[in-house]
Amino acid sequence: MLSPTIDNFSLDISAQPESASTARLFASSLARSIGCDQDVVEDLKVAVSEVFLVAVSSGEARVVITATIEDSRVVFNIEQVYMPTGSHIEAVPTLLVRALFPAAVINRSNGGSVTIPVSASH
Questions:
Q1: pTM for the complete prediction?
Q2: pLDDT of residue 47
Q3: How many domains does the chain have?
């Protein structure tokens, strides 16, 4: 039996509004590479945009997006996304990301991160 192929990718960009399109392109390109449907790709772009804009609003300097591809699955981890509890800044992105990707994990410790697992059969 062959062991699965695992590829790792990383994007470290400035947390500026004009960098949001780069974050969306990074995520959508990787999702397309594993065969995700266009609807899933569009949902991912929305989720990444929302999380990225939280980083911009919270004053973070940089955002790091890592992606691990294993067969027909990719897991995105967006780091340095401080999502304060109980604020309007946190509520909409959290609800939206979880509505689009119920398996998403939002971690508020150590600078904050959001993990979004996506599979070709999502």
A1: 0.82
A2: 92
A3: 1
